[in-house]
Structure formats: C-alpha cells, structure tokens
Amino acid sequence: MRWEDRAGVFLRTNSGQVFLSVMLILTALLILGTASVALASGLKRISMIQEWRTGAYYAADAGVERALARLAGEPEWRDPVGLQLAGPYLSSDGEPVGTIVRVRVTDAAAQPEFGCRVQVTATGAFREAEQQITVTAILVPNTGLFNGVSILPDTPARRVDVSGELNIQSPVGKGTLLIDGDLAVEGGAQVCADVFASGRVEPGGKARIQGRVEERYPGVPRFPTVDKEWLAAHATEVFRGDLNIGHSEDDGLDISTLAECGIYLVEGTITIAGTYYVRTTLVAVGDIAITGDLKRGAGDAGLLTLIALGGRAGTSGDVAVLAENAAVEALILAQGTFRVAGDVELRGGVVARDLAAPGWEAPLAPAVRINCDPALVAPNIPPRDVVRTRPRIESWVGG
Asked: Is the pLDDT confidence value at 207 over 90?
C-alpha cells in the first residue's frame, strides 16, 4: 500500500483524536494570548499607579516646603486644619501637575527646652493617588538666637575652641551658648553659661563650665538667612565703598545722626565707635571693626544691629572688637567670625559662624562678658524681612 493510502486510512480512523489535539493547541494558544494581554495591561496599570503616586508625593513635598518657608518668616504660625496652604501644585512651566490637599502645622506633643518643635503633615494628590509626608522640625526664633551667643558654623562637625573666659549672663540667670558642632574649652578657660551643643562638649585641663551642659542637643538651629535684596530695596541710605562711623570730622557718617529704625547699607567695610541714640541697622557687605566703646546715649534707646555679610573680595563677614576693655551695646550678626582682641563687655547678643581672636584662627582667649537681657533684646531684634531663622528637620516620614 502506498504511503498516501496509509495516511488516508490513519486520518479516517483517528479523526477524533486529531481534532481534539488541534483544539487543545488552539485553546492553549488562546490562554497564553489572553494571559499576555492581561499581564501587559497589569504592568501598564502598575506603572501608571506608580506615576500617580510619584506625582502625589511631589505635591505633598511641595506642601511641606511651603510650610517650612512660612515658618522661617513666622515661627509662631500654625494651621491645625491644614487648608491655608492647600491648592494646585504647579510644574516649572506653570501647569497643574497635582494638588496639595492639606498641610497641617501643629505643635508637637514633646517640646524642647530651647525653641519649639512643630509637626508638619502634608497630603498631596495626583489623579487617583494620595501620598502623605510627616515632618518634625525645631524652630528657634530670632529672639532665641540673639538672646546670648549662637555659634553656627557652615559645617556643624567643626569644633569651636574657647581658651579664655566667656561669661553670658541674663537677669533671670545664666545666658545661653548655642553651638552647632563640638565645643572645646581649653587650658584654664572658663565658660559661665547654659551650653546647648549639637555635638560634644569637651572641657580639658583645668577648664570649667559653670552652667548646664546639653550635648548632642537636637534643637540647635542652622545659621539664619539674610535677605540682601530686601536690604538693598529698603535701605535708608547706601554707601559705596568703606565707611567710618563716629563723631570725628573725618568720619563719613556721624553716629549721632542715625535715623530711627533706619537701614544703612555699606558696600564695603564699616569702622565704628561712639554713642548712638536710636535703634537702627548697619549692614556691611564686607567686615565690621569696632574700634572703641559703642554705647547708647540714653537708657531707653534701642539697640544698634550690626550685620557683616562678607560678600566683598578679601572679606569674610567678620565683626571684630579691636579695642581692649571696650563696652559694646549692640546685636551682632557675623556671616564670618566674631573676633575679640581684649576684655570686652557686650550688652546684647551675638550670632556668628565662629568665635576667635582677631587676625588669626586662634581660640577665643580674652575675657568676654555678655549681658543678654531678654527685655532689651526682644524689642530690638532685626526684622524678619532681614534675618530669617531656618527650621531644623528632625525627622521626615512618608512616601
């Protein structure tokens, strides 16, 4: 029998089995195809949901940033309901790419001894997804920064050295020394203050610290920001180059003629000494040198605020008291170092990135006595438009 005849006989006798096999193969192919379509659709859905969740997270993150920015200017602001900052979240092109549903800002249950702890809970939405971020931050308002001495370096790991006498007093007890980093008190040095350091406090040799010592304290703030553009736009008077301020005929500005609540912007270095009669703000784009006594002419006069920005070539934003046994009544903010040549008595407060003697990177060796009377400091602190504290993030949970 020929091969073709045999095949025909086989097909006729086994036609049911062949049909069943074909149907099984087709069914398997159909199942595989359906599964592939379902898998592709599921993967696309998962990718889309992830995209929505990412967009919602960005919206929540924007809500947190809005809250922190407002707290920097208004440390006492709170919004327990969370609708004040709610609204659309816009892209860099101005297109809405999500929604800030709510941003609740409340006081945390546990409060630090210095400053205040706030909790920010922001909810963002994008399409069908929502994300929530909860942030805990510590705020120290300007009154807290200037009510004593705050040394806040660029790099918190940097060590601040004291080898002389630093005495910070307040009518209600010891004043406050804030250190963002480590504090080393060397030799026979003495620090009389309540010390709050984000790092370690290391008294060596015969050094003594009279007051409370809080190491690794979470509430030490960052160095505040200074709005240079606001200063330039609102300055009472702007001086090009260096400026001497005092009572001499050779001085470029008579210190007794300063305007009440004025802002004097000097695009150079300020050299100053003398007696003033009103609350005012002096800002140097370079450094500031105090060459003699700098005092108020009346007991009820406001405090002078000295700000050194260090934006000019060859300057660091230092404020230096160059006269020995000087008496200074002022609030001092130095983007660089607060330097003291000899024994100094300061009535006011200091915010600086470092503390040293003039002319070299040496530890603070002279005796510095600071009277930080809160009743005097509080009404004279720089406006929030000029100096803004930055919230310090403790925890960030979400996403």
From this structure: no
Shared domain check, 166 and 81:
no
Count of domains for the chain: 2
SS3 for the chain, per residue? CCHHHHHHHHHHHCHHHHHHHHHHHHHHHHHHHHHHHHHHHHHHHHHHHHHHHHHHHHHHHHHHHHHHHHHHHCCCCCECCCCCCCEEEECCCCCEEEEEEEEEEEECCCCCCCCEEEEEEEEEEECCEEEEEEEEEEECCHHHHHCEEEECCCCCCCEEEECCEEEEEECCEECEEEECCEEEECCCCEEECEEEECCCEEECCCCEEECCEECCCCCCCCCCEECHHHHHHHCCEEEECCEEEECCCCCCEEHHHCCCCCEEEEECCEEEEEEECCCEEEEECCCEEEEEEEEECCCCCCCEEEEECCCCCCCCCCEEECCCCEEEEEEEEEEEEEEECCCEEEEEEEEEEEEECCCCCCCECCEEEEECCHHHHHHHCCCCCCEECCCEEEEEEEC
Q: Where a domain ends, among 91, 120, 139?
A: 139
pLDDT at res. 190: 83
pLDDT reading at 3 higher than 60 = no
In a domain, 23, yes or no: no
First-to-final CA distance of the chain: 77
pLDDT of residue 119: 96
Q: With 70 as the cut, is the pLDDT of residue 258 above it?
A: yes
Residue 364 has pLDDT above 60, yes or no: no
Q: How far apart are CA 152 and CA 237, in angstroms?
A: 30
**Which of 113, 139, 165 lies at the terminal end of a domain, its last residue?**
139
Query: Residue 220 sits in which domain range?
Result: 142-388
Q: What pLDDT, on the 0 to 100 scale, is given for residue 384?
A: 78
What is the average pLDDT across 1-24?
59
- 294, part of any domain: yes
What pLDDT, on a 0 to 100 scale, did the predictor assign at position 105?
Answer: 97
Residue 190 falls inside a structural domain: yes
Assess if residue 25 is contained within a domain: no
Residues 110 and 147 grouped into a single domain: no
Q: Which pLDDT does position 92 carry in this prediction?
A: 76
